[in-house]
Amino acid sequence: MRTSVKDVYACGDCAEVYDFVHDDFRLTPLWPTAYVGGRIAGFNMCGVVKEYKWGTNMSSMHFFGLPVITAGISANDEGDYEILKVVDEKKKIYKKIVLRDNRMIGMIFMNKIDRAGIFLGLMRNGTDVSSFKEELLSDDFGLINLPERK
Ligand SMILES: Cc1cc2nc3c(=O)[nH]c(=O)nc-3n(C[C@H](O)[C@H](O)[C@H](O)COP(=O)(O)OP(=O)(O)OC[C@H]3O[C@@H](n4cnc5c(N)ncnc54)[C@H](O)[C@@H]3O)c2cc1C
Q1: What domain of life does the native source organism fall in (predicted)?
Q2: Closest CA relative to residue 129, chosen from 97, 109, 103, 96
Q3: How many whole angstroms from 56 Cα to the centroid of ligand 1?
Q4: Pocket around ligand 1 at a 6 A CB cut-off
Q5: Alpha carbons 122 and 98: distance in angstroms, whole number
Q6: Which atom of ligand 1 is nearest to the CA of 33?
Q7: Residue-number span of the structural domain to which 35 is assigned
Q8: What ligand 1 atom has the least distance to the C-alpha of 13?
Q9: What CATH number is attached to the domain comprising 128?
Q10: Could you say which of 49, 98, 113, 148 has the lowest number of CB atoms within 10 Å?
């Protein structure tokens, strides 16, 4: 969060920060980004060296009573992506996971948003999901599906 100017730090909406999905620096104008960035800036201003590696685009909202969570790249159905999708019109459930090289780079969940944190963790850690890809969109996907840590 240190700028190119000595003793000047920046965070929040006025600062570009590292985005782990895009592997690049960009504006991510969200409240959690501002909070975490401010914390990291504070540490560095006090001489405790810390790096911001935390964020990507993410939103949670309600549309017409339907909870929706998104993170990372939503992607069109074309391009260098693998898309996993579940559409259940009756239950008004839509789930989409975007993969590149067997790693999650995006998600959209509508009306079934449980365990979004686990999915975000997979994105953040760049976890290779090839061994449990088929289970990602199953109704009861959870920590139990993840391979044991070696
Ligand atoms: C309508 C709207 C909806 C949003 N919804 C969401 C959401 O659902 N989820 C989410 O994560 N983010 C949301 N955001 C974004 C989020 O509010 C911002 O990313 C976050 O507030 C950025 O924090 P900040 O500290 O950088 O800036 P701000 O929160 O804008 O704080 C900047 C402060 O600086 C003050 N200031 C400005 N100029 C001066 C000056 N010259 N001297 C002294 N003080 C000054 C301002 O008064 C303000 O208090 C939303 C933003 C908007 C506008």
Answers
A1: Archaea
A2: 103
A3: 18
A4: 12-13, 29-32, 34
A5: 12
A6: 19
A7: 1-56
A8: 26
A9: 3.30.390.30
A10: 148
